[in-house]
Amino acid sequence: MTIIKQEDFISSIADALQYISYYHPIDFIQAMGAAWEREQSPAAKDAIAQILMNSRMSALGKRPICQDTGIVVIFLKIGMEIDWDTGTSLQEMADEGVRRAYLDPDNKLRASILDDPAGERKNTRDNTPAVLHVEMVPGDKLDIIVAAKGGGSENKARFTNLGPGANVADWVVEQVPSMGAGWCPPGMLGIGIGGTAEKAMLMAKEALMDPVDIQELRERGANTTSEKLRIEIMERVNALGIGAQGLGGLTTLLDVKIREYPTHAASLPVAIIPNCAATRHLHFSLDGSGPVELTPPSIDEWPDITWRPSADARRVDLDTLTAEDTHQWKPGETLLLNGKLLTGRDAAHRRISELFESGQGLPDGVDLKNRMIYYVGPVDPVKGEAVGPAGPTTSTRMDSFTDLMLEKTGLIGMVGKAERGPATIESIKKHRSVYLIAVGGAAYLVAKAIKKSRVIAFEELGMEAIYEFEVEDMPVTVAVDSNGESLHQSGPAEWKIRIEEIGRPRHEPLRK
């Protein structure tokens, strides 16, 4: 009988989480490289290049691909002939593995998990607990999938109960535009069809752990209903022109994965969950001989793509910037930010709102007049870093606070990722402000532009505190200009038309 020792299991979980924090799955990197090769949209091609360069830098530096190091999801298939050498539960062992990984002093990962989710929302400080899924199977091995799922993509999950006989592809394609760009495309779409509501959602999540193989499927042809759906949904979604980071382009999806389960005659449950540009998962087995041994991938597996800012990028001095200066910027223009940049995301915005409601105003030391604010929750620094990986968070979560911030603080611009809502765009237009985006999935690359960092308010909020960064040539793109023109609206609209003009044959990939 196979005996799995407690320490072997815990250390394997910890090692796997460290591994996936800085190594992308190679099949994902190869798919991204192919997307970069065929991309014709300059903005999308630039974004994919940043993501690929960030991935290579993270692999070499052994630092997180993304500042959002995720909620840990673990799938266990436990052989029924296994015995355990432990006095604790599976959940307790898994959580200890998470705790070790996220508090590792050589590569500390961001703790994002909040207890009392509908109330105080207090950070657990070690990213526990993990979300554990357990299945008993025949055999004497323990099969493990460890994943770290970012909040930006997780928030875009969708579920419905369609009527029997409804068109699944129609519903999925209808949902994707409403998901916006907060899930950091290009990525994968996991789809669960059948079972019950919770079964469909679980299948959609588990489908994202499968390898990228849509090209092989296209070449051999579809043999089943689900395979035909994969190809149809992939082609129809990419034809929408959403593109990398929602800027407009040829590739929105790298693959579509589908899992199915028999369902009730009255039901057709369908769930969709996207994976982002920080796709992180690892599959391995334990057989009782010791902890997992993980072999690093060869850096030669990464495409030889080097990102550099375009020659016509505009350098901006944040310390002397005025509102009038920002009125010259146009959607799609590349800027290189220099000087002092304040940060603030959900919790900080909520605190500021409460302070204004009570008549107190901004906290001591925080002056936003003629300043820009960056929506970010960085990873803690190690080994002399000014800050750890510090990519943008999804800006739409700050939409409800934006008009207040622009009205009350003198703020002239914001930096984040993904689109803004219609009311927020109107507020930006009314206040003649601007909204810029950094590339989601390029957190380590962005962090290299941050030379100094200090907390100036709400230190108790941890990664959600207000920091002051000093940046040098931090790359951003103008997403909404002072006239309210949005790149996230114009870019996909333009590329949807261009793709229609290309006239790509059905079920045939774009050629390089």
TrEMBL record:
Pfam families, A to Z: Fumerase, Fumerase_C
> What domain of life is recorded for the organism?
Bacteria
Q: Where is the Fe-S hydro-lyase tartrate dehydratase alpha-type catalytic domain?
A: 12-284
Q: Which InterPro entries match?
A: Fe-S_hydro-lyase_TtdA-typ_cat, Fe-S_hydro-lyase_TtdB-typ_cat, Fe-S_hydroAse_TtdB_cat_sf, Fe_dep_fumarate_hydratase
A single GO BP term for this record reads: generation of precursor metabolites and energy
E.C. number, please? 4.2.1.2
Please give the family membership noted in the entry. Answer: Belongs to the class-I fumarase family.
The free-text function statement in the UniProt record for this protein reads: Catalyzes the reversible hydration of fumarate to (S)-malate.
Q: How does it assemble?
A: Homodimer.
Q: What is this protein called?
A: Fumarate hydratase class I
Which species expresses this protein natively?
A: Candidatus Thiopontia autotrophica
